């Protein structure tokens, strides 16, 4: 019998569970707008003992007869992560049980787990949801030609994935995907970067995707960007807006690069904000 436990929150009708895909190498040198030594000190004070790696999370949402997955991890691409399917099965869910996949955006650590070794869909019974601007970006031939060789591989992965799921691909708009779950456009990291807000039973949760990659650093100094941002200026605007909003509203948040705890609160600080792993943001 599997006794593995996963952090979960009951948001009204929905049980939301964080599933780790593992981690990936990410040097502090990828950050801009902060000295590496200062960034390292923020990590040290926050108790981060391995500053060269960041966590990769996905989220399982169960309720109203639905089994929903938010992002799919790396699938083990680039020697990173790859634990999601094992952890999903440990919750009692098989890939074919998932009926809906909500994608925050198209980077490999978010869509890499969608295809099997033969290039076919892993989640054969799922409807796939993605922001239309995200699909447009990754299918833009001019953007592909301008990209570096590494980024061109990312473009190719997205294109293969969207082709494999073509019969079940849906584009997000301002409407709820299911009752109580609606997309929130959070542009900058990528053009169609999207969060998902759950409001049910008087409770609320915002799964904010990649608002931060180094949570303690980029909350303390929201102007700090990372090399993965397509539009660093827009990403900073979005990050500042969401940090201010979630702190003001005492909104519970979840994110793909928060720690393994998976759920957190944003609290205002003298300069910037603190990420606090807590069960109740209203305390």
Explain the layout of strands and helices.
Blueprint: E1 8-11, E2 14-25, E3 31-32, H1 36-45, E4 53-63, E5 66-70, H2 84-90, E6 100-102, H3 108-111, E7 127-130, H4 132-138, H5 141-146, H6 149-164, E8 169-171, E9 181-185, E10 194-200, E11 203-207, H7 215-220, E12 225-226, H8 232-249, E13 252-254, E14 263-268, E15 273-276
Parallel strand pairs: 5-6, 6-7, 7-8, 11-13
Antiparallel strand pairs: 1-2, 2-4, 3-12, 4-5, 9-10, 10-11, 13-14, 14-15
Description:
By secondary structure, the chain is of the alpha/beta class. The protein has one domain: Metallo-beta-lactamase, Chain A (4-Layer Sandwich), CATH 3.60.15.10. Helix content is 26%, strand content 27%. The chain has eight helices and 15 strands. The chain has a seven-stranded mixed sheet with strand order 1-2-4-5-6-7-8. The protein has a six-stranded mixed sheet with strand order 9-10-11-13-14-15. It is globular, with a radius of gyration of 18 Å. The mean pLDDT is 95.
Quick structural gist:
The chain has 8 helices and 15 strands. With 283 residues, the chain is of the alpha/beta class.
Roughly how much helix do the residues carry, as a percent range? 25-40%
Give the neighbour order of strands across the main sheet.
1-2-4-5-6-7-8
Report on the biggest sheet.
7 strands, mixed
| Shape, per Cα inertia axes | globular
Low-confidence stretches: none
So what's the CATH class? Alpha Beta
SS elements, strand count: 15
CATH topology, by name, is Metallo-beta-lactamase, Chain A
Structural domains: how many: 1
Q: Indicate the structural class.
A: alpha/beta
Radius of gyration: 18 Å
* Overall pLDDT confidence: 95
Helix-strand sequence: EEEHEEHEHEHHHEEEEHEHEEE
User: Roughly how many Å apart are the termini?
Assistant: 37 Å
Going by CATH, the homologous superfamily would be Ribonuclease Z/Hydroxyacylglutathione hydrolase-like
> How big a fraction of the residues is strand?
25-35%
CATH architecture tag? 4-Layer Sandwich
Question: What's the tally of helices?
Answer: 8
């Amino acid at each position: 019998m599997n006794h593995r436990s996963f952090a979960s929150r009951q948001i009204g009708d929905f049980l939301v569970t964080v599933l780790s895909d593992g981690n990936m190498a990410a040097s502090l040198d990828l950050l801009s707008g902060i000295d590496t030594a200062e960034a390292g000190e923020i990590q040290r004070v926050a108790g981060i003992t391995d500053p060269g790696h960041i966590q990769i999370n996905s989220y399982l949402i169960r309720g109203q007869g639905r089994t929903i997955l938010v992002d799919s991890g790396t699938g083990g691409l680039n020697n990173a992560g790859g634990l999601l399917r094992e952890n999903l099965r440990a919750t009692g869910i098989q890939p074919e049980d998932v009926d809906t996949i909500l994608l925050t955006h198209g980077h490999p650590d978010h869509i890499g787990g969608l295809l099997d070794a033969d290039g076919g869909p892993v989640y054969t019974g799922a409807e796939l949801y993605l922001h239309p601007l995200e699909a447009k970006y990754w299918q833009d031939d001019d953007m592909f030609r301008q990209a570096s060789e590494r980024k061109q591989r990312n473009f190719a992965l997205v294109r293969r994935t969207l082709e494999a799921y073509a019969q079940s691909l849906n584009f997000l708009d301002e409407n709820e995907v299911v009752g109580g779950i609606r997309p929130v456009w959070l542009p900058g990291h990528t053009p169609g970067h999207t969060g998902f807000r759950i409001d049910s039973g008087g409770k609320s949760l915002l799964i904010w995707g990649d608002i931060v990659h180094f949570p303690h650093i980029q909350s303390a100094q929201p102007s700090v960007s990372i090399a993965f941002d397509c539009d660093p200026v827009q990403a900073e605007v979005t990050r500042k807006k969401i940090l201010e909003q979630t702190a003001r509203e005492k909104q519970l948040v979840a994110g793909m690069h928060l720690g393994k705890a998976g759920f957190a609160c944003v609290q205002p600080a003298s300069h910037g904000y603190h990420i606090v792993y807590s069960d109740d943001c209203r305390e």
